[in-house]
User: Fold these one by one.
Assistant:
Number 1:
Amino acid sequence: MNKFEKIIGSSFLFGFIPFAPGTFGSIPAILFLFIPGFNNIIFLIPLILLTFIYGIFLADKFESQFGKDPKQCTIDEMLGTWISFIFIPFSLINYIITFILWRFFDIIKPYPIKQIEKIKGGLGIMLDDVLAGIYTLIISHIIIYFINQ
């Protein structure tokens, strides 16, 4: 694995923080959302697709170097974060709600996320975060809808 792959695969090295690497690995993804235009769906959806495809490749490399579902590999956290924030209206409260839900679903792994995580290799590493992101996306939109009523 080269330096670029290590940096990207670990969410700009946040994955190497010894405690809560998944939570810390989500931070760069959140910071990107504050860049004007970044959360534009025309930009974000292709980025999500590219991150998913490249993430499978990188997660396989991380797994071969660090073992099964290595905590250092946090590109999946970036992917799940971006999925969670699709069409979330920008406000501090909306972003806090969505981030807390994202971490909840990623850590607790309700059905069938836990089963998907068992898929071998980079695909399994990436897919469980895709599904956790989708759960977050749906629940966040419901909560935000009712808050704004």
Note: The chain has a mean pLDDT of 95.
Number 2:
Amino acid sequence: MKSVAPRLLFTLFTASLGTSAAAADLTVEVDGVESDGGSVAVAVFTSAEDFPNKVAHGQRVKAAGQKAVVVFKDLPAGRYAVSAYHDANDNRQLDRGMFGIPKERYGFSQEARGVGGPPEFRDAAFALPAEGARISVHVR
């Protein structure tokens, strides 16, 4: 019975190392923010089926200057897409005008743009390697 406990502890220890080693940090720098008012909302999507409506990970930060930086910790390596918008009036939604056209600045990873709506996931998607990454999203 004594020989099982050290092996079990070793297995648990190495399994926990494998889990943390596979986790990556994604740093998203949002530029093009036009004022210090409101907040900047950043969303991470994990699949074409979820994009752009089912957010896997999201954060909001106070708008300060023309840039905002958000860090998503411990994401598994893989393919992701990111959207961001400057919620200038801080009402927690992307304000839209006539015909549903956004009135606040917004953008997607890979500078993806849609025609008559959001871009496709494949156009905004990027690979997040195990060592993590830093990407930029320009809102306009």
Note: The beta strands are 23-31, 39-45, 57-62, 67-76, 78-87, 106-108, 126-128, 133-138.
Number 3:
Amino acid sequence: MSSSPLVDLFGFPATLVHGDPMVLDRWRWLCEHLPRTRNEERVLEVGCGSGAFTIGAARRGYQSVGLSWNAADVAKAQERAAMCGVEGKAEFVVGDARELDRRPELVGQFETVICCEVIEHILDDLRLMKALHACVKPGGRLLMTAPNRDYRAITAPDDGPHPKTETGWHVRRGYSAVMFRELCDQAGFVVEDISFCSGWVSQKLTWLWRQAGRLDQRVGWLSVLPLRPLPLFLERPVQWLRPWPPFSTCLVAYRPRFAERITESSSVTHRSVKAV
């Protein structure tokens, strides 16, 4: 029997309703920066979970690879990829995001790297950012989301205390635009765009999902299933009527094509001036 009967029945859209209601917001944002392609461009998703975004990228024409530390999630993602008709275009491997810099086979292989709601779980976030930079081809992009440092807690644990060790929960509250710029500067990325997603409607649906899920995960899932389309229609007017901090900060970062050449040129010029 399939472990994902809804995906078996409804295909890819069902992969976006297995998690919290904010997953769809992140996918819609990703689609803005993943134009459909026939050019065999490669995408790496670091922290792919059960594979929704990796599968979605494959459906948009990319050769995609999803990396997850959880072998059970990898197996589930592979099953779902077959159900969605992208077996062979979406590949999944077991790997720890904290050890990404120990995967030389991934270095410089991808036009786009996706990392959604992962970096806030990792103490050495600069190490991860540098490893992500290494995986992106010159001229490629990083698409990253993380909790907005200025969010209003959906449920009490969002306010902490955040653990000092990597337990699987968030080790920091989130990221502001300035924090993302700092990481990009240190890692070698150029910030292309910073925006936000998941407003009041999505957050309140996530609150309902979490509260009902305390009784039973199936109850939580069923309680919000018929309400999941609401953010598509209501988020903007509600935000206008009731301004509310978005839950996630969204980053588009660019790896320069000519940075290495510029560095070499500057070095040569410096040596020439010194010689004179």
Note: The CA atoms of residues 209 and 221 lie 6 Å apart.
Number 4:
Amino acid sequence: MKKALRNLTTFTLLAVISAGFANIGWSADDAIVTVKVEGGFADVSANVRSAIIGKGINISNILHASDMLNRTGRDFGYQDNVYVDAETYEFCSAGLSHKLARINPDNIVMCPFTISVYVVSNEPGFVRLSYRVPTGKPGTEAIVEEIAALIQSIIEEATW
């Protein structure tokens, strides 16, 4: 009963959070959650950085995905670019990482967490934010919910 109540509470929280987004593509079976908002890449990207840092979390790396893909596309026979701009932010919460590791050391692969911010070439004027739904070893369900809530809160803060 307690677990069912916690799951219902988490679902309700995620539903309330996602209600404010312009367009969210998500179902319980999806491994990737995507939010699409109107706006400019530079603004949304800066908002993501600010939201992560504002939670006292260090950004460990920024992957400039569009730079690499746009630079190498023609080498693989692609004439057009998928992305106008695309970056992935890697970050990790030390507190959540400690909890994960203490339950099962194999959970190390869950960190860093990532949020990708990107504009698709055929949809200028819209910025997408995507993240992988976290999953961990058995016994980490409550911490996984904390991670999902953290990532959702960063996206919410960056897109309001």
Note: The CA atoms of residues 26 and 56 lie 28 Å apart.
